[in-house]
Amino acid sequence: MAFTATRDASDTMSEMNITPLVDVMLVLLVIFMVTAPLADLRIGMGLSRTNPLPPPPRLERELTVEPGDLFRLDGVAMTPAAMERTLADWRQAEPDGLLKLAVSPDADYQSAATAMATARRAGIENIGLVEP
User: Fold this and answer.
1) Which CATH architecture fits 60-130?
2) pLDDT digits (tens, 9 = 90+) for 15-71
3) What DSSP string describes the chain?
């Protein structure tokens, strides 16, 4: 059994060179081995276990607009000028207070707009519309 050492030019090499493929795979393996532990980086967070106190109840006043340009602040009839002074004083005492505005269905739209504008001029920011 002897092998011939000569090759003809017409013979083609039928074997695939896998060395570059193995080199690329080894490089990728090394890259993944280095970056895999970094992907599992976790930061510990401690959540507080204290129960905060509930906020103090918000002080509320009710402004009622009735037909005939009649304004009642907590049941007391007032003019827009007197109402603005009273609301401004209340705003100084309770800056986070809530003004509930109840407009009668029979009241004029202009009366409701006047009441809201008066409250805004007095500095009231929290105005809620309620049903009379």
Assistant:
1) 2-Layer Sandwich (3.30)
2) 788 888 999 999 999 999 988 877 776 777 777 777 778 877 778 899 999 998 899
3) --------TT--------HHHHHHHHHHHHHHHHHHHHHT-----PPP---PPPPPPPPEEEEEEETTTEEEETTEEE-HHHHHHHHHHHHHH-TT-EEEEEE-TTS-HHHHHHHHHHHHHTT---EEEE--
